[in-house]
Specification:
There is one protein chain. With 222 residues, the protein is an alpha/beta fold. It has two domains: 135 residues, Rossmann fold; 67 residues, no CATH class. It is 29% helix and 32% strand. Strands 11-10-15-12-13-14 form a six-stranded antiparallel β-sheet, with no helix packed on it. Strands 3-2-1-4-7 form a five-stranded parallel β-sheet. A two-stranded antiparallel ribbon has the order 5-6. Strand 1, helix 1 and strand 2 form a beta-alpha-beta unit. The chain is elongated. 30% of the residues are buried.
């Protein structure tokens, strides 16, 4: 069965990503497999060699995507070699081999070496063997809802607004050692945050939490 898919990094699976997923489900209409195409690790990390924190790990992304009705998730391993594929080869060697009926992307989608391919190029390309739909940005107070915007809100301790833009709860997976929280996720750097661990309330402040056990836990911000 062919697929209707959207493509991107999807950090946070926020309102903008959810609009893409909603369109995938709509166009699939029980005739095609609703699919996500994403990359791991993050291309930005591969080329910068810098540590980066995320709204969602790959495991968390998958959890949200399946909950929103996606049936298949294609994770493309991203390497430096893969990053040098030109835009035409990306269409030929990657997208055309995925048995797509339709590919949905955001207006700012970039692909191929140095991001030289974009949504306009994809629409006009005669190499592709699938249809393309491009969605406009989802805006909030005149600004595009993005993973960067939401990440900055969380760092500043503005969890209420961050959760509105995410359109779901925010939680992190962390290990706690000597009350210090270690995580791949973005956490508040300012103020105090009320959180739940195993349904019990705690306060997270300055990356520390008064938690008795030293193990991996799910920390839900409330």
């Amino acid at each position: 069965m062919k697929k209707v898919a959207c493509i991107g990094n999807f950090d946070g699976v926020h309102q903008g990503h959810q609009a893409l997923i909603k369109k995938v489900i709509e166009l699939s209409d029980n005739k095609f497999v609703p699919t996500i195409i994403t990359f791991d690790p993050d291309p930005e990390v591969i080329f910068s060699n810098e540590e980066k924190k995320y709204l969602t790990t790959l495991k968390q992304k998958k959890e949200y995507m399946y909950n929103f009705g996606i049936k298949e998730i294609i994770v493309i391993p991203f390497t430096k070699e893969f990053g040098f594929i030109d835009k035409e080869k990306f269409i030929d060697d990657v997208l055309n081999k995925l048995k797509l009926d339709t590919l949905i992307c955001g207006k700012d989608f970039r692909f191929g070496y140095k991001g030289k391919g974009n949504s306009d190029y994809l629409i006009k390309s005669e190499k592709k063997n699938f249809k393309v739909e491009v969605l406009e940005h989802i805006m909030f107070n005149g600004e595009k809802i993005s993973s960067t915007l939401i990440g900055n809100l969380i760092r500043e301790g503005n969890l209420d607004l961050a959760k509105i833009l995410l359109n779901h709860d925010y939680y992190i997976e962390a290990s706690i050692l000597n009350n210090k929280v270690n995580t791949e996720n973005i956490i508040p750097l300012k103020g105090e945050s009320k959180v739940l661990i195993n349904s019990k309330k705690y306060i997270l402040k300055n990356k520390t939490i008064n938690y008795p056990d030293e193990k991996k836990v799910k920390i839900v911000f409330i």
